[in-house]
Amino acid sequence: MKPASPLRLRMLGVGSAVAWLVLWWLATDVTHWVDTALFPDPSAFLESLQQIAFGNYAGGDLLKHVATSSWLVFRGFLLAVAIGLTLGLLIALSAFWRDFLAPVFNFLRPVPPLAWIPLALLWFGLGDNSKLFVMALAASIPLVINTTTGVTQIDRTLLAAARVNGARGWNWLWHVILPGAMPHIAIGLRLALQTSWTVIVAAELLGAIWGVGRVLTAAKDDVYPGMIVVGMATVAVLGIASSLLLDWVESRLMRWRTR
Amino acid sequence: MSRESVRPAARRAPRRAMLASDVPQRRWLGVLGIGTFIALWYAASLYIADPSTLATPLAVLERFVSMTHEPFAGSTLQEHLAASMARFGAGFGLSVLIGIPLGLAMGWFQYLDALVKPAFNVLRFIAPIAWVPFAVLWFGTGYGGPVLIIFAGAFPACVIGAYGGARLADKRLLEAARMLGAKSLRILLSVILPSAVPSIVSALRVAAGNAWQSLVGAELIVASSGIAYIMVRGQMNRTIVIVLTGMLAIGLVGLLLDWLFGRFERFVQRRLGAAAV
Asked: What is the model's pTM?
């Protein structure tokens, strides 16, 4: 087989996206292979999208639901970054805190993020605080792990050179440790963002007034396939958009790498 | 000559540690850390003394043991665990059976790759838990629904692992096989699959972790039995000791799964390493 040219593959990619959409239309409206009570046809999807975008569904319009979830993820993610970076740096830099805290961390780590939700509901009720608690806890775990790995993998010669040249305290942390660990921290940030979205969708499915998870719950209870697809598409678009935003922030933070 | 000069250099000028990894681990500090954590937990639960907020570690352990012979929410802990493992096995097994061949084929047939990738990339960004409404609509809440969610959790890792492994296949081997007249399917089975095995095995470990995590979410929302369902009941009854017992059981099983898949990974690496020499 000849290697296909990049342009050809790209065209094929676009073509295939179109082909999937045509296939969807064929399977539902033309051949009726797929029962529209179980999966919507394109027109039902567009109607649902129109209803929630310009009208009202599950207590608000699409903007309200998206804004609620995004704002929660944003706050939860920032909390997780603050906790994860602090704890990760503490464990990576101080032998005392590593020996003291790492076993406790490893004791709590095997509990999957979503398993904290019932506990959070008992402690904080159904409001924002329980969601923020679970996100801060669950999303900080990959950050702790990746920050620690990142710091231990910094080139020793570089560290020694910085030390000899008098890097201490804040300088040491800000100009040597953090930039050196940044490639790994970037991986941790990506995982933390993904975890935050998973947690928020699950938490909103279990109880929320607004949010994308609330839309999914309402669509499930109403047996409304068009709105289910709208909800899932919203989750995907938000995930992709926030990950692109993170890419942009990282490219600004790591400008020194390309120089 | 003074006695100073015979002291070893290392003791005169101790090397300053730059990172925590420069200092050997002190286990007693770890024991102290865990001890402090449990003591604080104990003290807090005695001080708060509210069964809906906190329970002592001892009460959790007692409950854990008693639930193995006294039914809760209709079944004992083992029966809930068995229900969970059946769902886990079905969802994880399906994702391996479908995901790995698909990933290998995508890694080898460029046109299939270009065709499937757009759909796969969109699906990958949907959190597994967002499949809940369709899982309920298509398969109900008992067994099939959670299986779909677990499948959605494990599937991407299987595809990506097999795909990455297939792309790692040695170009010279591929060219040699092609020159000797092997057909595409034969190359896929005899050249690409063997070289993808290490990557597939690592992916299985990741996929199992994701599947376990999705199972917890699925059982919290749509199931009426299983190890995470225990926690839902505990939360509804406002008895935290049940919730904590569920977390303990989930953590233990998760650890066990990770350990098993880790062992399997090392076993395969060792065997392949021996074969390569």
From this structure: 0.87
